[in-house]
Fold this sequence. Notes:
The chain is mostly helical.
Amino acid sequence: MFEAQRAANPEDPPPELPVEGELLTGTRFLKLSVRLAKHRFDHWVDWVRGRDALDETGPGAEGNQLFLSALGWIRRHEFAHHILNHQELWSGMPADSKEQELEADDRATTWMKGGHAAELERQFRVRPSPSEMELERRALVILVGVIRLAQFEVGPHGKNTTHPDAVTRLNAMMHRLALAQDSFATETLSYLVKVLIDPGGDWPADSESSYAIDAATDAMIRLNRRVNAG
């Protein structure tokens, strides 16, 4: 995947954006993230503030924790390949490779989910239990990590012959996580997809997305269309 990246000039100026303040800072981070998915950078740009990877209490602490937690899911995914003996079972066929990736996803998601579960009978807007809140936190880091991978599909890299597309992986993970209809993690997923593929769009309409799961489903349909459109 990374070999498909094209070299880019980190000295290129920042994008001209009609915003200011904190919104400008966040939008520049987004634009840089998209560029990183399309190009190879040899050093950091000077128009986005560098992040402190050791920040545990300051403004970067939450972002660092989210990033490290997402890496934790990726490590579980790689461990799962070994536990499932995929290196011995690999046939070299793309279909088999994609199936193994989905199996590793499922095992990693199961490990990270642990014994936490959503209260599916809970009334709408009733505060979730501590266990469900922990499930939401864990689900969020998984979904954020996979959306990061989706950036490569949206960029001009072509089809991946060894890994399933992000929408297929997300659907399988959502099934395994079994989140509530008003899940915060699920709602955040819909926002992340929107920012990635259509930040200026006017969707989803309230009438079309009564619950978070509906908005996420709509977002994944749109993401799938975007990726397949090339």
